[in-house]
Amino acid sequence: MNFSFSDDQILLRNSARALLDEHCKPEHVRAMMDDKTGYGAPLWGEMAKLGWLGLPFPEQYGGAGLGLVELALVHEEMGRAAYPGPFLASVVLGGFPILLGGSAAQKEKWLPAVASGRARLTAALQEDRLDCDPAGVTTTAARAGDGWTLTGVKRFVPWAHVADAVLVPARGPEGLSLFLVDPKGAGASLKPVTGMDLGTRWSELRLEGAGVSADGLVGNAGGATAILESTLRRAAVCASAEMLGAARRSLDMAVGYAKVREQFGQLIGTFQAIRHKCAEMLMEVENSHSAVYYAAWALEAGAEDAAVAASICKSYVSESARKVCGEAIQVHGGIGFTWEYDLHLYFKRAKSLEVQFGDAEYHRELIAQHVSG
Amino acid sequence: MDLNYSPEDIAYRKQVRAWLEQNLPSSPPRTLEERKIWHRTLYDGGFLGMGWPTEYGGQGARPMEQAIVADEMARASAPAPTNGLGLGIVGPTIVVHGNEWQKKRYLPKILTAEEMWCQLYSEPNSGSDLASLKTSAEDKGDHFAVNGQKIWTSGGKVADWGLLLARTDPKAPKHKGITCFLMSMRQPGVEVRPLKQITGSAEFCEVFMTNARVEKENQIGKLGEGWAIANTTLGYERGGRSLARISGYASQYHRLVGAAKKLMRNGRPLIESPIVRQRVAKIWADLEVERYNALRVLTQLERGEHPGAGGSLTKLSYSEFEKRFMEVAQEILGPYGQLTDGAPAELALEIDTAVGEMGTWAYGFLWSRAGTIYAGSSEIQKNVIGERILGLPKESRADRGGAR
Asked: Which residues contact B344 (CB under 8 A, 6 or more apart)?
């Protein structure tokens, strides 16, 4: 029993923090808001060089062969930096389905390309009705020769505008199947939408008879549910780690401000109204840390309670990160409400991740199913 | 990071489980004498004073072994040992701060419950501001004479001895004039009156001291060091209890889910209501987060690190959780939850109240209000977290002469 990081894990965290402190300062985050792609190629290249883009892939596919705890550590640092880019989309949403369900050929083709940064992937997990339960998918896949044609609309597909392929669940004659779709191919069209977090890029993906060849099926026909559920759990934990990072940075800023800001002739940190708020924020952050790293370990180790741990993690952190990032604005008062001050970067990132990969309510229903048998 | 238990820990857990199956009393002990017999059985089994040095009758066990024993006891609904304050607070204080004579004289009889202990800290006007305590101990040459009143003394009725904080130097700054003593409760100068709480029972007492006698040999540490000693003992993260507490919550929780399947609202079982499902799921998520926190604390203790002010975070988190849990339980159980007697078996709760009385959901609900007050209220914990973990500036306080 050891609930603490190894020396290697601490080294990884420190190197992630150092890289992001240098290359992902708030000025970079702000510059990317106006960038067409929304992320910087130089930083992407650095991540590839450090092995982050293939972090959870086996070494034979150009990966680092590390686990979810390490992946969560990197995501936490990204949250702390409000990193804008397709890291989670490409490595987690794209990488895991192929790793978990892909053929040898698909792994050969995509994993080294993702790991080296040459290619980017993402997955389309939501439709109009926003149910991220795989059972709710209405997009259809019809047989066309030895391939398929897909029809339907996917919403809020993260970083699809820079993706080389999108993993799309669709319902075919054999049931729910998972397909690799070229978002720029015939029958597919992308329409970017703008949300309040400009470091999260979403698109609507419209499929009107989009063609998929025989080698674009990931896993067995009708076999998508298990792959999607596993991917969703991993994405939920990585997103929680990113929210945790955003919350911790917000707390650090609030505490820092409470130590220098004076009102009524005193530092505001001397007031219990502020101090107690900060103490509650720390409790939420530490509880979130416990939830994130327990779930990451449980998924990696294949623990009995891994699935419910992922839901506990996402439901807990979604709400506590929102609370902590929001209270940091409250501690700052007016300055925290300005565009110029950086707090809104973290507040908005946490808000954006809160509603992806299942919100708190969605995951609590999964927990209820678990405990009520 | 590896959250699997080691093969040794798994083997030890099996051994403890087997022992409990063999030795658990067929019916829970009710009287103090029955509880002392069960206590002695636990002691003979080698399950008390787990973390104390072996030369004073302890087991010298690792924190994980202590946690496993407590956890298995909670899972088996085993009655707690008696002399809880002796084992939890007084013993560790003597282990750390007592002299050799005191250790040899007092520790073994705490373990066997031959001598029962209480803690004489809080006073009517000194609750959160404990260091303002007024009870005096005056040096009479060959002994100290103690005068004053203590309150919230758990187990005062049955205690033979008390761990006392008293003021020995009224002229010194308030944190510097306090000394720690061991005082016999069995003397004419000590009067104990039970204090009935909102639960209707009286786990606590008021203690009145009128020229009560404390021998010189029973002073712990140096004169004026009492506050520092109290702080370290109050700060003991009783990590040994960390897992057991969660297992206790978990078995209550599963009973609650069972009740939610039986009870109906609007013609359907409560457990089918989406609102109830959300509430019940939130409690399970929070409960599991407390379990993960307990594993983090245990990791620290196993590495020989003291959680320090981190103990304030742990205590704040679980005591506030317990209130939320009991509130949801009451919402689900309705009037059944308020019964102090006569609830149908499947809607009843049996918890060990540590004084030989049967617990009910009503008792658990009322008792949950105590957790955020005793051993430093939630507000005090937040002050500690703010000052000692986050490094926020100290507040301006009249007794410290302004902000620092």
From this structure: B336
Helices (H), B144-272: 226-234, 242-262
Q: pLDDT by residue (tens digit) across B223-268?
A: 999 999 988 776 554 556 778 889 889 989 999 999 999 999 999 9
**Model pLDDT for residues B362-383, shown as the tens digit of each residue:** 999 999 999 999 888 999 999 9
- In Å, what is the CA distance from B15 to each residue of B26, B48, B218, B295, B320? 20, 16, 39, 21, 34
Chain B interface includes A301 (CB < 8 A): yes
- pLDDT > 50? residue B356: no
Q: Which of B5, B281, B390 sits opposite A278 (nearest CB)?
A: B390
Helix (H) or strand (E) holding B43: helix B32-44
Nearest to A168 by CA among A191, A138, A147: A138
Q: Which of B314, B305, B302, B291 is nearest to A1 (CA)?
A: B302
Residue B237 annotated in active site: yes
Is the Cβ pair B403, A266 closer than 8 Å?
yes
Cβ–Cβ of A294/B3 closer than 8 Å? yes
Write B39-44 long-range contacts (CB < 8 A, 24+): B39/B81, B39/B82, B39/B83, B39/B112, B39/B113, B40/B112, B40/B113, B42/B81, B43/B81, B43/B111, B43/B112, B43/B113
Q: Which residues of chain A make contact with B393, given a CB cutoff of 8 A?
A: 259, 267, 269-270
Q: What is the dihedral of CA A241, A282, B304, B88, to 10 degrees?
A: -130
Chain segment A258-312, per-residue pLDDT in tens: 999 999 999 999 999 999 999 999 999 999 999 999 999 999 999 999 999 999 9
Taking a C-beta distance cutoff of 8 angstroms, is the pair B92, B236 a contact? yes
pTM: 0.95
What's residue B355's pLDDT?
A: 47
Query: How far is the alpha carbon of B188 from chain A, nearest alpha carbon, in Å?
Result: 44
Residues B349, B355: Cα–Cα separation, whole Å? 16
Q: Where are the beta strands (DSSP E) in B159-233?
A: 161-167, 178-184, 190-195, 204-215, 219-220
* Contact between chains at A290 and B292 (C-beta distance less than 8 A): yes
Name the residue in chain B with its Cα closest to that of A280.
B382
Yes or no, beta carbons of B286 and A316 under 8 Å apart = yes
| Amino acid at residue number B93 | T
- Is the interface score ipTM higher than 0.90? yes
Q: Rg for chain A (alpha carbons), in Å?
A: 21
| SS3 of residue A181 by DSSP | strand
pLDDT at A84 over 60: yes
Q: Quick check: A365 contacting B, CB < 8 Å?
A: yes
**Which of B123, B237, B290, B322 is an active site residue?**
B237
- For residue B400, name the pLDDT band (cuts at 50, 70, 90): low
A119 close to A86: Cβ distance less than 8 angstroms: no
- From A73's Cα to the closest Cα of chain B, the distance in A is 12
Taking CA–CA distances from A296, the nearest residue in chain B reads: B1
What would the two tokens of residue B250 be? 């978990």
Question: How far is it, in rounded angstroms, from Cα B383 to Cα A289?
Answer: 22
CA distance B200 to B8: 44
Contact B3 A303 (CB under 8 A): yes
Cα B27 from Cα B22, distance rounded (Å): 14
